[in-house]
Known about the structure:
Blueprint: H1 3-10, H2 12-59, E1 70-71, H3 73-76, E2 87-90, H4 102-113, H5 117-130, H6 137-147, H7 153-166, H8 172-176, H9 178-187, H10 191-196, H11 202-209, H12 216-238, H13 243-254, H14 262-276, H15 280-293, H16 299-319, E3 321-323
Parallel strand pairs: 1-2, 2-3
Helix pairs in contact: 4-5, 5-9, 6-7, 11-12, 12-13, 13-14, 14-15, 14-16
Amino acid sequence: MSGYAFIRQRKKPLLTVAMALVCVIFINSYDSQKTASLATSSELSNNKIATQQVDAQVSMPATKLETSLLADESAEQGSEVNDSRELIIKNTPNWRFDGVFLDHFTELKQRAQQGDVEANYLIAQNLKYCFNAPLDEQVLEVKLAEIYEFSDAGEIQSRVLDKYEYCQGLDLATRRSFYSYLAEAAENGSAYAQQTFAGLTPEFYMKSQFPEKLSRAEFIKKRDSFKERKTVFLEQAAKQGSEQALMSLASMYYSEQVGEHSAAKAYAINRLIMEITQNNDMYNRYAWFEQRQYPTLTDEELSIANNLFEQWLLQIKQNGTLYSKN
């Protein structure tokens, strides 16, 4: 009989107890290991989930919000730093005053002399508005008589009377000075003044500023000088996010009125309008222009257009403003 068998027979009661103890120890050890294993597994699982969540956040594509380029002006007041991805919406201020403009003119001129850009702009808009208003009662009567036979004579006559009363006391020389005030404001960075040049035609400029007869050469020189200055102001306003300035430039470039690479510039500006406008009708209009222009451009013109688009869009975002067309 082997020693092993002997021990089993002789020590059976003791062996049974020992075996029981071993089993208890083994079970307890197994439970501890299992618990530790489950804890470790749970920790690894949690770490894995956390890692997946971080990875998902990193790899998740950015979603462009409809208002990503826009912020209400009131929400930005008091903030010194503007997010370059947002544009503060600017609405053209109400430049017309209550009563008669002459009552406000003296104070505005004093402000303008002290370097107040807004005062220059307000004076310019009012004097430009008054430029064609009747100067006296005799001129007013003639104007009203001319309107009498129109189908909507009553409404038109009411507007003429309102304009006449608002502009009383301003002589023609004062009214002509609107341009110097407007140019002063534009030179000093007023986007409102700059974009106002979009509505000034060379014909109106020449009529308002040079009533005397000019030689043909002098006339052309002054007219072309105005067109160049107008283009500069409109480009400055466009880079501040002026829709009116962009629209005017697109039209000017498309009709090849100014500069070189006009077709490429018109195409780039159409894309800029599409990029920043919040007006659906305007977007659709300029999308149609863009689609019609694209096939007509050469590779070189497309390259010029793309570069101009990227440069101006960057400047618009850096300036952080959108002057929407009313």
